[in-house]
Design brief:
With about 270 residues, this protein is α/β, with parallel strands linked by helices. Helix content is about 45%, strand content about 10%.
Length: about 270
Amino acid sequence: MERSGIATAITSISAPGVHFGDDLAAQALARRCNEYAAELGRDWPGRFGGFAVLPLPHIEYALEEVRYALDTLRLDGVLLFANCQGRYLGDPYFDPLLEELNRRECVTFIHPAPHPGVAALGTDLPQFVVEYVFDTTRAATNMIYAETLHRFPNIRFILAHAGGTLPFIAWRIAHSPQIDPQRFGDVAPSSIFSQLRRFWYDTALSPTTQSFAGMRGVTDDDHILFGSDWPFAPEVLTHATIAAIDGEASIDGALKGAIARGNAEKLFPRFR
């Protein structure tokens, strides 16, 4: 952080998460991780916040951890994976959890995760190369068609990696109900575009002219956040991301400052 000029980090547990087949072990590991995240914040005031990791797919344990992480540890939000053991956000299974997050007006970071069905594709690439961006796209699209953002309007959802491929195919998603109204009903494109605008999008592994054009095409400038993907993306890529944003000709200095910190301060006002 010092070498990169980063003042504050909001930590999170990325894939594969904390569940490895045993619900109780996942509950215990989530608690250890969340308590460590809170400890970082206490030891380095102003430098660290944290998204709580949850022991999904066990909903009751997840709800218990939400209460502990937000009420006792005072973490800044939660992390949800785009899919949990193959079940995507937007599935009614997650509704009890989203009801609680909605009640709390919780900032919720969505990060892709390995999908068990990818092995059947037969490709020999790590999932982070291309599948992760599709994973985020599937989750966000499923949430849009399930009206998750309408039903839980108080949750602030952040999508990793510039929303995956979501900005690039936004028009296609918005107009798909016109292709198959029997399947989707009478859904106006404007309704879908309005939901796309409500997501926040981060710059992790996406600090390009094309990515900024895509994000700005589907959301407002104050919904774009700096993201690094460190430590899975090594430090050299953090430096490269910062340099790319600083040198991006399509955005002005005010927006660069907002992406660097100002927009995040609106979501996490305790760091102002």
